[in-house]
Design brief:
The protein is mainly beta. It contains 2 helices and 9 strands.
Length: 146
């Protein structure tokens, strides 16, 4: 019995349709909620979280060296992490890239003071309230820029 040449494509097409269906169920980024969060002045780090209208984000982190450090480092360490963001009615959802991602559990440690509303969903995903004017990241208060 001879098979039609497209018979081999049917399982692949079904798989691709299933993936597409799953992606449409995820939260999407409403450009009206694009925002920038900046850290208040502090002696630990400067942070900038940019949630762009194209559903992408960049998280910039500049960590100051500790005063009197033994290695003599005087320049801050600089990092940039990227990914995609979305939102639902209550939360922002940030999904970091697989490579070059921060330790999210360190960024959202519930033991920080002031306490944080940032929640780690998995090793690549953070959630925090959509309407809050401040968010605490790595123990540093960050305000929503107007």
């Amino acid at each position: 019995m001879k098979h039609h040449p497209f018979t081999r494509l049917v399982p692949l097409l079904a798989f691709l349709l299933a993936i597409t269906a799953c992606n449409t169920l995820q939260e999407s980024a409403d450009p009206r909620y694009a925002a920038t969060y900046l850290s208040y002045p502090n002696g630990v780090a400067d942070m900038r979280l940019e949630l762009k209208e194209n559903a992408r984000f960049e998280y910039h982190l500049e960590i100051y060296p500790e005063p009197g450090n033994e290695q003599g480092d005087t320049l801050p360490e600089q990092f940039t992490f990227k990914g995609r963001w979305g939102n639902n009615d209550e939360q922002y959802i940030l999904r970091f890239r697989r490579r070059n991602k921060p330790d999210l559990y360190a960024l959202a440690n519930p033991g920080y003071e002031p306490s944080t509303e940032v929640v780690v969903t998995d090793e690549r995903t953070l959630r925090f309230p959509l309407y809050d004017e401040e968010v605490v990241i790595w123990g540093v208060r960050c305000f929503r820029e107007e």
